[in-house]
Design brief:
Helices cover about 70% and strands about 0% of the residues. It comes from Algibacter mikhailovii.
Length: about 140
């Protein structure tokens, strides 16, 4: 299980991802707030993170890194619904976030390729886990 510092880092990373195009849209904000609740981060702390990012903390657990990557995929899809012009920039940013987390580039590439074939580009969690399990073994 992740500790408070890691949780704040995860959320801060997602906020940075959402802010790469300068604005956090309402849908993104609500999604991020939901993740904050899931991580048991108060709304006050969440609001603080929007303007005061914390230092990135590398997750030790491979499964937690996969979960975080999945959250970023979902966030990217929310972002793309409201701004189609940023598609390639978002994909590149997501790819780089995945590499920084220590995920294999083969797995990341496969997820990004396969998401085009799913409704709303949402890769089901079990498919995503299978992709990373295959590469991890």
């Amino acid at each position: 299980m992740v500790n408070r510092v890691e949780k704040l880092s995860l959320l801060s990373e997602m906020i940075a991802f959402a802010k790469h195009d300068k604005d956090i849209r309402n849908m993104e904000y609500n999604f991020l707030l939901g993740v904050a609740r899931q991580l048991e981060i108060t709304r006050t702390d969440f609001e603080y993170l929007i303007n005061h990012p914390v230092t990135y903390t590398h997750l030790k657990s491979h499964s937690e890194r996969i979960v975080q990557f999945h959250r970023l995929v979902l966030l990217m899809n929310i972002e793309q619904e409201s701004n189609e012009d940023n598609n390639s920039k978002s994909v590149i940013k997501l790819y780089n976030f995945g590499l920084r987390m220590g995920l294999s580039h083969e797995s990341i590439t496969k997820v990004l390729y396969l998401m085009e074939s799913f409704p709303n580009k949402i890769v089901p969690p079990d498919v995503l886990i299978d992709i990373f399990k295959t590469q991890y073994n």
